[in-house]
Amino acid sequence: MLANYLIGLREGLEAALVVTILVAYLVRTGRRSALRQVWTGLAIAVGVSLAAGAALTFGPRGLSFQAQEALGGTLSILAVGLVTWMIIWMSRTARFLKSELQGRLDGALAAGGAAVVLVTLLAVGREGLETALFLWAAAQSTGSGTDPLLGAALGLATAVALGWALYRGALKLNLAKFFAWTGLGLVVVAGGVLAYGVHDLQEAGVLPGIGSLAFDVSAAIPPDSWYGALLRGTLNFTAETTWLQAIAWLAYVLPMTWLLVRRLWPRQAPAPTRPQTEHVAA
Amino acid sequence: MRTRHLRALPALAAASLLLAGCVANTPDDGSISVTSSADACTLSATSAPSGTLTFSITNAGDQATEFYLLGADGHKVIGEAENIGPGLTRTLVVQVDPGDYVTACKPGMSGDGIRADFTVTGSGTAAGPTAAS
């Protein structure tokens, strides 16, 4: 049961993390009305994943590995793009919050509202089909003393609970810290998804270098340990990481972190003189 | 109007991708059963005619396992089934051209796994559009 529990936890964590940050962000910026869009995206992603998973498991036709990989790879690239957009969107809002240009803040929020559904949809849907296929397989299994489905479901529930705990914590941070930490959190999540996509392409032979590992720490961090599952679920950290994976991760995370630090920690930069009157939002 | 059409494009693309990738579920005839345990990876057949192969992998161990169909070089992944928890049976459907391959079970999800050779013979059936060799 523990092994199935850890798979459920790992598969659920990333989505829980992104959705938690999105919800916390909307609440902190006074946009509770946009929460409905988050739940809409969530319901669609979960519903479609479970239905597609059931159709492929019990129906007359399954999905070939090649098609599943093409779908997963495409969704991963889209997810990286959308989370990157979300990071930039949030950091812009943070700047406007600081300069108290409420009119421009509202403009930025309005522009982003429409994409909230899409971000949620992709964050949950990216691993949704694989998780659904895993769940249906667990449901089908003839439990031998243990109950695989119970383990899998408890794992997913734990991921949601961890997301909830993170949400409570995020509400207590002051706004500057909130933006800094959630921004950095999203950067490493997106970097992980990118590295994972690169690894998939290397496995398929589209990109070279599957055999050249930058490091192999699977002895110290076994992928089937609870900490291995946590690292994999949040950062997409793989104990056996190829050079190309590591380079892709660094090439994403370093510039994005630099961008965030520049935007969110401009402590000693002299503020340009701005007129006190508010601009009318065009 | 135009933007609405554009928004539907990704969904359409995904749908057509899914339809093109749909293959018949053949659990009874022609499926190769694999049993993965802590120290063994037992296949019901070590060769098969080319085309659509279905592996049905059962995890008889107490660690999560993975199953791979690899190219002759032992690196290129032709197909992979992940997240096979203890007690679970999962299916890998993959379109394969004739040639030499390697199968691997990875109990514990790390290392090279328990490997064996696998041969795909010519059957006159094309492996399908997505199975770029």
From TrEMBL, chain A:
Membrane-spanning intervals of the chain: 39-58, 70-88, 108-129, 149-167, 179-198, 242-261
Entry annotated with the keyword Transferase: no
InterPro entries per record: FTR1/Fip1/EfeU
UniProt-listed Pfam families: FTR1
Top-rank taxon, per record: Bacteria
Family affiliation: Belongs to the oxidase-dependent Fe transporter (OFeT) (TC 9.A.10.1) family.
Record's protein name: Iron uptake transporter permease EfeU
Biological source species: Actinotalea lenta
Gene: efeU
